[in-house]
Amino acid sequence: MEKTHVDSIAQDVGEVLISKEEIQAAVERIGKQVTEDFKGEHLIVIGILKGAFAFMADLIQAIDLPMEIDFMDVSSYGTSTTSSGEVRILKDLSITVEGKSVLIVEDIVDTGLTLSYLTKVMESRGVKKVAIATLLTKPSRRERAVDVDYIGYEVEDKFVVGYGIDYAEEYRNLPFVGVLKPEIYEK
Ligand code: 5GP
């Protein structure tokens, strides 16, 4: 049989960390929890571009509440070495969040810089409540404390791709989350 493009990029992955089925299980679990926790409320679901778009698309279908969705794009300049903590908004919301209940949807919480900044931004805009859902978290990398309300899976400090998450804009269309083989970086 002819090898597809997805088959060929899947071969760059040395280890599958979270399978398609495990992702779906996390989506269902978090969707149910959010539905219970925000019962009777109208939710604003905010996806952080680009990595969270796949998780966001699945998660909203598992949340049984009235909602609006929007997206933000941010870039973080803080690293463990520079740790400037600077986060810049590249694309802002097009709807207002004042007085609303907000769920921020992220792919990975790593140092926590992005989400600690975004939580402050939401609070400064007068939201009623802000909660965070992330597919993955790397607790060992945390530099800023972040209250993450809904977590898909905890992962080790490894660079992951797939299910919306990229390396050099590639691998977003893999249906699972995995770790790239080292030779891909060393190319
Ligand atoms: P933080 O501000 O928490 O350090 O940054 C989180 C962001 O870093 C994620 O949304 C993601 O864009 C990026 N990131 C962290 N770990 C990984 C990883 O393993 N793979 C990829 N592709 N991006 C990552």
UniProtKB/TrEMBL annotation:
Query: Per its UniProt entry, which superkingdom is the organism in?
Result: Bacteria
Q: What is its EC number?
A: 2.4.2.8
Give cofactor(s), names only: Mg(2+)
Q: Name one GO biological process term.
A: IMP salvage
Supply the name of the protein.
Hypoxanthine phosphoribosyltransferase
Q: Which family does it belong to?
A: Belongs to the purine/pyrimidine phosphoribosyltransferase family.
Which InterPro entries does the UniProt entry name for this protein? HGPRT, Hxn_phspho_trans, PRTase-like, PRTase_dom
* Entry keywords, A to Z: Cytoplasm, Glycosyltransferase, Magnesium, Metal-binding, Nucleotide-binding, Purine salvage, Transferase
Please name the CDD domains in this protein's record: PRTases_typeI
Which GO CC terms are listed, alphabetically?
cytosol
The molecular function GO annotations come to:
guanine phosphoribosyltransferase activity; hypoxanthine phosphoribosyltransferase activity; magnesium ion binding; nucleotide binding
List the pathway annotation. Answer: Purine metabolism; IMP biosynthesis via salvage pathway; IMP from hypoxanthine: step 1/1; Purine metabolism; GMP biosynthesis via salvage pathway; GMP from guanine: step 1/1
Q: What does this protein do?
A: Purine salvage pathway enzyme that catalyzes the transfer of the ribosyl-5-phosphate group from 5-phospho-alpha-D-ribose 1-diphosphate (PRPP) to the N9 position of the 6-oxopurines hypoxanthine and guanine to form the corresponding ribonucleotides IMP (inosine 5'-monophosphate) and GMP (guanosine 5'-monophosphate), with the release of PPi.
Per its record, the protein catalyses: GMP + diphosphate = guanine + 5-phospho-alpha-D-ribose 1-diphosphate; IMP + diphosphate = hypoxanthine + 5-phospho-alpha-D-ribose 1-diphosphate
Root EC class: transferase
Gene3D superfamilies in the record: 3.40.50.2020
Domain Phosphoribosyltransferase: residue ranges = 21-167
What is the annotated localization of this protein?
Cytoplasm
